[in-house]
Amino acid sequence: MSAVHPKTILAPSDALIIVDVQQDFLPGGALAVPRSDEILPVLNGYIERFRAAGLPVVVTRDWHPPDHCSFKPQGGPWPVHCVAGTAGAGFPLELKLPEDVRIVSKAEDPMQDAYSGFSGTNLSAMLRALGIQRLFIGGLATDYCVLNTVLDALRKGFGVFLLEDAIRAVNVRPGDGERAVARMRERGAVALQLKALMP
Ligand SMILES: [Zn+2]
Q: If you count Cβ atoms within 10 Å of the first and of the last residue's Cβ in the chain, which end, N or C, has fewer?
C-alpha cells in the first residue's frame, strides 16, 4: 500500500513564482510551447490560493532587446521572441494576475541570455525582503526557464515545490522535459499538484 501524503499547507513564508507565461510561448506565438495553454486554468487555481492566503505572486518575463543574442538572426538558437514592449512579450488575458503582482523582467542584456529568473534580476533580494523561504514554481518552459529558475532557487537555499501540473516543455530533443523534472527532483524540488494544496 502506498503512503498517503498529507496535503501541503501554505505558510506565511511562501511565494508563487510563475515563469515566462507570455504570448510568444503560447499556441500561435513566435516560440510556441506545445500544449502550453493547458496550464493557464491550473495557474489561475494556484493564483487564487495564494491570493486567498495573502501571499505574494511573482511573474518573470523574457524581456529581450530586438537584437538579442539568443535570436537566430544574431546566431542564436531561437526565433525572435518576447521583444520588450511587443504583444508577444505580453501576458495572456486568460491568466488572472492579481493587481499587486510583482513582475521581474529578465534577459534584457543583448549579449547575454538568462533562462533563470534569478539571472541578473532583483528576484532574490525581493524574496528575502519579503521573508520568503519556500517557492512554488510553475510556467514555461520546463526544460529551460523553469529548470534554471528552480535550480538557482535551490542553490540559493529556498525550498522549492515544482508545480508539475502547471509546466510544459519545449522538448527540442524528445524527453527533455522529463529529464528536466528528474534533475529538479534530484536536487531537492518537491513535485506538487493543485489538488494536493490545501485550500
Ligand atoms: Zn528568450
A: N
Q: Which residues are catalytic?
A: 20, 106, 145
pLDDT tens digit sequence for 186-197: 999 999 999 999
Say how far apart CA 146 and CA 144 lie, in whole Å: 6
Decide if 124 contacts 131 (C-beta within 8 A): no
Catalogue all structural domains in the chain, each as residue range(s) with its CATH number: 8-198 (3.40.50.850)
Q: How far is the CA of 33 from the centre of ligand 1 (A)?
A: 12
- pLDDT single digits (tens) 102-156: 999 999 999 999 999 999 999 999 999 999 999 999 999 999 999 999 999 999 9
* Per-residue cell: 91: 501576458
Q: Rounded to an integer, what distance in angstroms lies between the CA atom of residue 17 and that of residue 15?
A: 6
Q: Who surrounds ion ligand 1 at CB < 5 A?
A: 62
What one-letter code names the amino acid at 5? H
Expressed in angstroms and rounded, the spacing between residue 82 Cα and the centre of ligand 1 is: 6
Quote the CA–CA distance of 118 and 153 in Å, as a whole number: 8
- Residue 101 exposed, middle or buried by CB count within 10 Å (0-12, 13-18, 19+): middle
Q: How far is the CA of 178 from the centre of ligand 1 (A)?
A: 21
In tens, the pLDDT along 32-81 reads 999 999 999 999 999 999 999 999 999 999 999 999 999 999 999 999 99
